[in-house]
Structures are given as structure tokens and as C-alpha cells.
Amino acid sequence: MGIRAEIHDRLQNHKMPGVSADHVGFFEGIKKQEERVIQRRTSALLLITGHFGKENRLKPYIFDIHPFFNETGQLIGTLAQARHCGFFSPLDYIPGKSPTTFTASHPNTMLTQRELQIIFYFYQGLSQKEVAACLHLSHRAVDNKLREIYEKTGVHNNEEFKKYIEENGLNQFIPPHLLTSNIQVID
């Protein structure tokens, strides 16, 4: 049984923890790589990042796919092994200077998810108009939200606001929508 059949079987029988039917499209990428292994009769090594587990957090895995031959040298399927990738950092997805630590989960704070998104873009140096474009909001909506955030945090200007962000670890937050699932061929 190849990877395709195994994944399909496990999805149908709900044997893979943290994997839902929504992940099927993602596994199509793995299926494509399995077909490459079968066609070339050589192994493939993948770096797979995806939202897995109960927390639905972005996690990296190294995924090995090997052709499997019988004693006569005939290809009869594939074998695969996945292992957590301990050296990978989601910060690799962020262009430019990034905080030294990172979280995509909502910090325990009085701020809403939308306010945290605005803070993230603001902290990255975007203007209010640029923040509005990124979040598909009007410039006025971002201006109003920033005023509300200033009031909630007790700051009065941009310098105080940046200091507040750093002192409260909000510079370590990145909106989850900026982190995407991906399959990269390593070898």
C-alpha cells in the first residue's frame, strides 16, 4: 500500500490525530512527491510545514519517501517516515528583521485579534494606509482602532506605543494568517 492509500485510509477512519478532511488538499502535495519517487525510482526528502495538532499550530516535519522494491527489483510501493524538525523556525517566513522569539497564538491580553494584527503591522514600520491595505480596512478604521489601542494601553504617542509593545512581548506575536503550510523538496 502506497502513501496515498495509507493517508486516504487513515483520513477516512480518523486514525491520524490532528488531521481533518481539510488537510486532504495539503496531502495532494505529498501524493505528487510520491509519484515523483515512483517515476524516478529514487527517494525524496521533504520539509513540510503545516498546521497540525489540537492547537492547529504551524509545525515543521522532515518527511522521507522511499521506493520499496521486492527481491526481483520490481517497484511495489513506497515507504514513508515523518519526524519533527527541531531546527526549523517559523521566523524564516518573515521578511526583514524579526523578533528573537515568536508566537502565533493569541497573547493573553485585553487586545482583540484585529488589534494585535494592527499592532504587528504598525510595529513592522507600516503606515496607517499600508496597514489598512494589508487588512482590507479603510484608513479611517485603522486610525480609529489605533486610538482605541492607545486608550487601552495608556500610551499617548508612537514612541510610548513601541515601548509598550516591546515591554509586553507583543513584538513577538505574528498573525497566524501570515504563516502558511508548505512542502519543500530538500533532496
What report would you give on this structure?
The protein has 187 residues and is an alpha+beta fold. It folds into 2 domains: 3-89 and 179-185, Beta-Lactamase (2-Layer Sandwich); 108-168, Winged helix-like DNA-binding domain superfamily/Winged helix DNA-binding domain (Arc Repressor Mutant, subunit A), CATH 1.10.10.10. The protein is built from 6 helices and 4 strands. Strands 3-2-1-4 form a 4-stranded antiparallel β-sheet, with helices on one face. Strand 2 and strand 3 (75-84) form a beta hairpin.
Low-pLDDT regions: 11-16
**Main beta sheet:** 4 strands, antiparallel
- Sequence of secondary-structure elements: HHEEEHHHHE
Radius of gyration: 22 Å
Structural class: alpha+beta
Q: What percentage of residues falls in helices of 4 or more residues?
A: 25-40%
How many domain modules?
2
Give the DSSP E fraction (strand runs of 2 or more residues). Answer: 15-25%
Gross CATH architecture of the largest domain? 2-Layer Sandwich
Our measurement of the CA-to-CA distance between the termini, rounded to an integer number of angstroms, reads 23 Å
Shape: elongated
Oligomerization category of the chains in this entry: single chain
Strand order of the largest sheet: 3-2-1-4
User: Average pLDDT value?
Assistant: 78
In the CATH scheme, what's the topology name of the largest domain? Answer: Beta-Lactamase
The number of helical segments is 6
**Strand segment count:** 4
CATH class of the largest domain: Alpha Beta
